[in-house]
Design goal:
With 387 residues, the protein is of the alpha+beta class. 33% of the residues lie in helices and 26% in strands. The chain has 13 helices and 13 strands. Strands 1, 2, 3, 4, 5, 6, 7, 8, 9, 10, 11, 12 and 13 form a 13-stranded mixed sheet that branches. A hairpin with a 2-residue loop joins strand 9 and strand 10. This is N-acetyltransferase domain-containing protein.
Length: 387
Amino acid sequence: MKLIEVTTPAHQKEFIEMAVKLYRTEKNWIRPLDNDIEGLFHPETNKLFRNGAKAKRWLLQDDKGESIGRIAAFVNPKMKEKQPTGGVGFFECIDSQEAAFLLFDTAKAWLQSEGMEAMDGPINFGERDKWWGLLVDGFSEPNYNMPWNFPYYQKFFEDYGFQLYFKQYTYMRPVQDLGFDEKMIQRANAIMANPDYTFRYIQGKELQEKAPEYFMTVYNKAWARHMGKSIALKEAQLMFGKMKPIIDPRLIYFAFFKGEPVGFFIQIPEINQIFKHVNGKMDLIGKLKFLWYKTFFPPKKMLGLVFGVVPEHQAKGVESAMIISYDKMSGKSSFPYKTIEMNWIGDFNPKMMRVCEQLLATIYKTHHTYRYLFDREKPFERHPIFD
């Protein structure tokens, strides 16, 4: 076997195509957009490089020169952990422990040379909401930017010595013809009886002109302390701008108290159901296919992206009221979506897990994020629980 560092355009192409060949007979795998992956490894498309982050990639070839594995390793100075911690991701491999361990060893050696004392994997070279975690249960088609892998990968990670850092759950429930927890309904009714609270869509000009500001206000109060950073208005505007081609205003919902935003949930159509037809390419043909399927065969599944309520309005029933009031709309026969999936609910976030359970949603998929401590005598600690 021979390791090759990815340094040329040909290597970059093979890094993508290696996975395509590996999964060529797997009906549930959906090819990611090439640019969604390749763009992570270039300074002009990934701002982490401008903040001191580093990444390396390797291909593993057999004696015939065929690619049988790949891996990437990252160092991100913004990752704040008890010990300097790097990451590994975009791991793919044939069913060979020898090949897998050689890839892990290579990534580990480079991370150690960069001063790291641990590595998390498989993770993304960027935000947690993309390409994060190893699929261990629920091997149906992946949602957009969620990883899919063969079941045998789990044994590779665990036999090498990676330990479970946290679990990520994807919850699912039908949109119609399923009720809610009775206590949830009672809390919702009490809040909805208070005229200071209002719940509504954000539509028209307000969606682009004011929704980013509403989102920023709630996010920075509800999530920033857990995620380690706040977002600026410009970032929120950019996020809504990027979502514009796929936004359905019926899936953007906010809660207000005396006219001020205090909660939201943001959903989108599950666009992997469209992207699976473009074969990873958003060239002219890919864009035409995207428009065709979006227009004539739109997704029947919606994807919950993010949900939040500001701390001073938590534990009062605001999240329940927001959901129940929204359900009254989505129960209409004209509403096209049949199911909703909620990605990336960490097992360190019991509040959000309880919300999903009160929705009578069930766990549909499970991903694991692992950590490997280079000092094998050091006590291992799981991800802290959100309070």
